[in-house]
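request received
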Amino acid sequence: MNFDDTPQEAAFRETARKWIEANAPKELHGELSKSSLGRIRLANHDIVDVGKAWQKKKFEGNWACLHWPKEYGGRGASPIEKVIWQQEEGVYGKLTQPFQIGEGMCGPTVMAFGSEAAKRRYLPKLASGEEIWCQLFSEPSAGSDVAGLRTRAEKKGDNWVVNGQKIWTSGAHYSDYGLLIARTDPNVPKHKGLTMFFLDMKSPGVEVRPIKQANGMQEFNEVYFTDVVIPDHQRLGAVGDGWNVSLTTLMNERMSIGARLATGVPEMFEFCSSLMLDEGLAIDDPAVRSKLASWAAKSNGLKYTSYRTISALSKGERPGPENSIGKLVSGMMLQDIATYAMDLQGAAGVLTGNDEEAAQGQFQQMLLSSPSMRIAGGTDEILRNIIAERVLGLPGDIRVDKDVPYNKIPTKGR
Amino acid sequence: MNFDFSDDQKQLRDQARKFLAEKCSPKAVRVVLDGKAPYDKELWKGLAEMGFLGVAIPEEFGGAGAGHLELCVIAEEMGRANAPVPFSSTVYLAAEALLIAGSDAQKKKWLPSIASGEAIGTLALFEGKGNPAPKNVKLTAANGVLNGVKKPVADGAIADFAVVAARTGSSGREADISLFLVDLKAGGVEVKSLTNLDPTRGQAEITFKDAKAEPLGAAGEGWSILTEVLDRAAVLCAFEQVGGADRALEMGRDYALDRIAFGRQIGSFQAVKHMLADMYVSATLARSNSYYGAWALSTNAAELPEAAAAARISATQAFQHCAKNNIQVHGGMGFTWEFDCHMYYRRANAMALGLGSLTYWEDQLIDRMRKKNAA
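response:
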């Protein structure tokens, strides 16, 4: 049991550190450091512009998507080397936000199921940040039950014609390509009639509409498809095998979403250390200490769980579905912490302004944003099902629609 | 980075698990639970023969000299098996106190007989309600004798010797406290068994009336030694708690697979699945915190105080959570004496108090994090 790098790992770390030291956009360091709880605040820059610049530089230095094979724009690095890179990249890693879906989900799917020509054409440009990808899975009536999706793709000659609607698509408004799962056969049970494609987001008939979220921000989109033509060579995997292909994507989603988790604990500790209550500092109050200690222990537990995962990677083992606990624990914790931080502010806790004296409204913003942490990328309930079924070996739920042709499944309003 | 136990340590774990499965079945635990024996003497002898009692005691003092990571591995298995023996009192508390503060003569006197299973030791710290604090130590030491009452003392009724916290000053500071070694079989010591939550681990009241005692460590350093002993024991107990939590989770999982209601396995209902998934989450967080504690313990790292407190909190919560919900998964059968669920429920809640309550350790964690942040 030790935390030291092997000599090779140490050498790799040194090389990465030197390169970052020489190349990182240091002028952004301050603002990026202050961007907490997954929110990036840059006063004079657009995250996509500065993100693309950093990604391009990394690509030229051979550090982009470094765990990918060299011929597709990567470095052929091991999983543990990728972790070391992320540790060294530190706050600059926040600049990779626009590319995370491409790197974490779309790229690996193209890598696993795309033709050689497609891999050579698309993956290097994805890695360099020149082309941004988004993921088009969820629909208004297919969230947790994503296999119940309705968007249709019909074969017309060598092409497919797509009609339907997707939702919760992060970054669709600035994406160049999208990974799309659609129904190609409604006459078979729902999991069997799906096919995976990728498409040019600038294709005629694609319309992106931003969604105004409950927290007042606009990060997600609806994407509408009206007679959108996709050539058959942009199909990934066999016709009707889309569900299996999507499992690759979703497995990678869980891995990449869990990689940089905010728990709210450092912010809460700092807040309680300076907040004056009627009786003195919040951190001297027994009730506050008790809650804070429980959260800190949980947050440490998550950190050391990820260390155990890294150790497994380091030995060449593949981490399993136990990774699901990261988002499950941190999502609920963020919400609880935000609620309690506001409780400590008393009546003034209702105020959300950036210029408010207590914590500049950051916990209020966290309160409003945290519900999405418990839903996006697998709801708390889906994650518990995954743990129960794949880790503990409990039986799956009874599925009344499992062997029923998709078009015979009872629907309401569909 | 290698944040895992070595292959040799994992082999030791398998060996301990196999041994305990044979020698410490629930049936054997029930002999002590039902009050037919104060502890499992055969098992204690077997643990000595396997070298488990002295695994972290250096060879020169009769131990195996393996180390604390090895002891953590065994502790986890002891917790899994709910072993009815004075392991934590003797090995985590008494032996650790001797290793930290004992003179060569004291170590030579007690450590070999701990390793061989001949001597049972314990720590006599508490005096009625309250958490570890210098002000709660009223028992006095003067002129080589102790006067006062300690309770509860874990395994006090079967212990041969005790490390006793005593008041040697009245300045109101930590330096008022010193530690002493007392042979409990000598004169001036009265021992009374007390009923408690977990009959598989006895509790006692010990009255000292001019009982002869020799100092353990320097006068006035008792509290700092004790703090270190409690931190080390917190990590080791955390492994027992993790073992117990895992076992309770397994019992619940197995029952959920086996039990049929409404025409299906109850483990196919989401209400049950999600309860078990949450148990898995707390057990996993506790395990990871305990691994960090094990690293800090085995390397004497400066991070030990913070790591120990976090491991203690996480493991206490996980064992309580898993033991409680294991009963819930079992339904009515879980509330019978016949089913083993209550043994883990009792152990979980007794262990939550033994080294000081959850609130105490939460307090400690915050203090220690503040100290680190200030540094």
